[in-house]
Automatic annotation (TrEMBL):
Any one Pfam family match given in the protein's UniProt record, by short name: Acetyltransf_1
Domain N-acetyltransferase: 140-281
Annotated InterPro entries: Acyl_CoA_acyltransferase, DUF4081, GNAT_dom, UCP21603_acetyltransf
Natural source organism: Nocardioides panaciterrulae
Single GO term (MF): acyltransferase activity, transferring groups other than amino-acyl groups
Record-given protein name: N-acetyltransferase domain-containing protein
Amino acid sequence: MLTTRHGVRPLGPPDLDDFLHLAERDPVVNVFADHRARTTTLEPRWLGGEMWGRFEDGRLVAACHVGANLVPVQARPADARAFADRALVRGRSVSTIVGPQDAVRVFWNEVAHAWGAPREIRWNQPHLEIATTPAVRPDAGVRRTTRADLDQLYPACVAMYTEEVGLSPEYGGGAELYRARVTQLVSRGWSFARFDDDRLVFKAEVACATPYAAQVQGVWVPPDRRGEGLATAGMAAVAEFVRQEIAPVVSLYVNEWNEAARAAYEKVGFRETARFATVMF
């Protein structure tokens, strides 16, 4: 297939192997796009968007997931600018730009004048990984959730999302879609929680996974139970579940200003390996 301006074109199923080789250059950082490629085979109707590739001398050198989230993959500054050029022609359809800090910054600087003021920009988000036994004792009370837990789990997910993003996932009629997403994670065995006297006091989910890594999201403890070590012991348990049954490396990214969360992850044994940035609309 011929490439377009600056060597950028949409990828499809015939490009899957090349894309996976590209993502495997940094398989933990690229886990989201890698997961999307593996689960959709880069078929646009399943992607719910596109995966753009940039080519040099016929070789795939960078990519960019463009769906609800725009996520650069192995993008150098020149690649990010090339993707931004294509995005300016297309217009903004994404709700979030997220990924390695340098690529996101270059991309945003190119499109900011046309895409309008974002709701929030978070430039410094440590990307953390653990590939060893946790440094603290896992909470034995943490378990996989089931559909029977949804009456407590779903409101906790809404509360976490609203607190983290600043906007309810139910806003604008999104409740049905968000509940379906929570239910999907439960069905996959990717949702974990601890309950005390039938009350949820800790939760976390796996957002995406590949043979190399899994990314955790949605870590939350009710406000009145914070400061008790529930997140630390809970994340140790989640890390053990994930490493034993889903993927060998567990990753997440956290806001720089969230000192309590960062301290909990450090106690567990998570270590920073990169910096992410997020632009939210």
